[in-house]
Amino acid sequence: MQTQFKRHQTVRLLRDADPNYVEYHNEDEPDFKEIPIVKGMHGKINMLLSNGQYHVEILDDEGKTLAYAPFGEEDLEAE
Q1: What does the pLDDT look like over 2-15, one tens digit per residue?
Q2: What is the pTM of this model?
Q3: Any idea what DSSP says for residue 52?
Q4: Where are the domains of the chain?
Q5: C-beta of residue 37 within 8 angstroms of C-beta of residue 57
Q6: Which phi and psi angles does 21 have, rounded to 5°?
Q7: Fold for domain 10-78?
Q8: Among 76, 77, 40, which residue's Cα sits nearest to residue 60?
């Protein structure tokens, strides 16, 4: 199977994430705030899922992990 993106490659989101599938990184912290994952945010490919989608680590402006979410190849753009 030929894939467009490699593991740990940085990408930009071309669509908003489905809130039902977003896994927030710091949900257990007392000051946790759910930030919407929107088009234009930066991320890093975590792994290729069995259904052909990518599990993407969503990053904030400082490069810290905010969440993880699945995206299709057409929903991502290489940086």
Answers
A1: 788 999 999 999 99
A2: 0.90
A3: S
A4: 10-78
A5: no
A6: -110, 0
A7: SH3 type barrels. (2.30.30)
A8: 40
